[in-house]
Amino acid sequence: MLGILGSARRDMSPNSERFSRQFRPPQRARMATLPSVNIPKLCLIALLLAAAGTAAARAPAPALAPLPAAMPADTMPRALALAAEAARSLAPQGARVLVLPGALDARLKLAACAQVQPHLPAGVPAWGRTRVALRCTDGPVRWNVHLPVTVQVWAPAAVTRVALASGVPLEADQLMLADTDWAAAPSPPFADIAALAGRQLAHALGAAQPLRATDLQSRKWFAAGDAVRVVAQGAGFRIAAEGRALAAGFEGQTVRVRIGENHVAAGRAVGPRLVEVAL
Q: N or C, where is the chain less crowded by C-beta within 10 Å?
């Protein structure tokens, strides 16, 4: 009996192999090796992102009603209608005109006004980014402010089907008609695809880009020494004479021409062997 107990003690002693197998604490799962990470830098990035998100959440929403309560409720629709009417007078037939209002300067402190008269200031463009003047005509203080607006004129125009490189002669199958904002640039787009055949691009264009005069190379209407027709017109009269070009005439550019033996005039090349002189 003592021998059996002694054997059991040896087998279950903390240093014995049997004890080690039966009572060894479970091993922890081996963790995958992670790449070296700069913890402080990640914390900084997280803080910056959180701050940016908080700032964005606090950012004021765009003003949907840019006119202050000092103005009558019908001021905005009347101002937009006036801008739209001016744009339609220059727009192609069937065009869709949209007028998007901006906001008045938030620093303005306007006295209440019972009657505000919208009007178009002299010299402002009818398309694109422009403005409508608002004049108080019935109030304790007469004031005049300008409301910024963006006028869009949507109508079909010639656009590229695919991307085209600079200098490429245009062909009809490279172009198509698509709804385009004519007011997006100072010069309107071309509406006639046939009129663009053979014209060369002044620079590369991507697909679905409208073609405007600035996208095309100037046409050479005549060479130096060519006989040209010189036309001068004014209020109620028109004079035409024959002359000779002293330089090459490129579309829309000024060129000097000799008329007779001793007279030299400057005019604009407007067509094949045709020069227009403004009086």
A: N
Residue 107: which domain range?
A: 75-153
Exposure string over 192-217, b if 16+ CB within 10 A, otherwise e: ebeebeebebeeebeeebbbbeebbe
Taking a C-beta distance cutoff of 8 angstroms, is the pair 268, 255 a contact? yes
- What the block records as the tokens of 229 is 């027709």
Average pLDDT over residues 206-213: 95
CATH code of residue 208: 3.90.1210.10
Pair 167, 211 in one domain:
yes
Interatomic CA distance for residues 153 and 96, integer angstroms = 6
Q: Is 256 exposed, middle or buried (0-12, 13-18, 19+ CB in 10 A)?
A: middle
Minimum mean pLDDT range among 16-25, 80-89, 130-139: 16-25
Helix/strand/coil percentages in the chain, nearest 5: 25, 35, 40
Question: Do the bridges between strand 227-234 and strand 274-278 make them parallel or antiparallel, or are there none, so unpaired?
Answer: parallel
Question: Tokens at residue 82, please?
Answer: 């006036």
pTM over 0.70: no
